[in-house]
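Internal ticket #5521
Category: modeling
Description: The requester needs a full-assembly model to guide mutagenesis choices. All entity lines are attached below as received. Residue total reported by intake: 237.
Assigned to: D.W.
Attached entities:
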Amino acid sequence: MTRLSVNINKIATLRNARGGNNPDVVKTALDCERFGAEGITVHPRPDERHIRYADVMALKDKVTTEFNIEGYPDARYMKIIREVKPGQATLVPDAPDAITSNAGWDTLKHAALLKDIIAEIKSHGVRVSVFVDPQPRMVEGAARLGAHRVELYTEPYAHEYKVNRDIAIKPYVESARVAKEAGLGLNAGHDLDLENLRFLAQSIPSLDEVSIGHALICDALYYGLENTIQLYLKALK
Ligand SMILES: CC(=O)[C@@H](O)[C@H](O)COP(=O)(O)O
Ligand SMILES: NCC(=O)COP(=O)(O)O
């Protein structure tokens, strides 16, 4: 069954807004796990707009489900991966000033960079997932580079879902087929929510994990965090 990793970036956004420690990022992560989350995802961006290096270090020995650290593999990110050795490192191609993740890697054009990075992370015993658009060529490229998994960028799916879900899902089903044939594990994430999640999971039985943050935290403002996590877990059943 597809596992739910809760991205807590936006908890840190709220905490940073006032400069104190409320909400407490570590406490919220542990509560998410207690409420049923099967993983915790963070994306410590270079400008520390939300998750900070200190948050990652504080979470390191407290998270008991799978810890997934996303980021562009610059020296700062690689230092974090070496120090934390999380369950999973998810490589994203985001520019430092990107407002959010908005594309997957070109695993053909950036093969030389990614090959060395993936090899180094694997040498620390960390699973590597490469964030890609739902294009078979990019999935195959990630497999050739030695990645364990790919994470399919699902913003295009979320957008098109509202128009025609049967069209929206097609590239993801095809990419999932190619990933399976290539021996890759399969993750998905970005802009998934209570409307579009069930159809994605039902359409892709091989989906190992979804990482969800923005919509889940927004939903929690209305339904409460525990209830919201339970609603997302139900959508994955
Ligand atoms: C990689 C991805 O799609 C998201 O996990 C990303 O981390 C969201 O980043 P923000 O929370 O900064 O929008
Ligand atoms: N990898 C996707 C993620 O962690 C959360 O993305 P979003 O749900 O905040 O869009």
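Resolution: model delivered.
Comment from assignee: DSSP finds eleven helices and eight strands in the chain.
Ticket closed.
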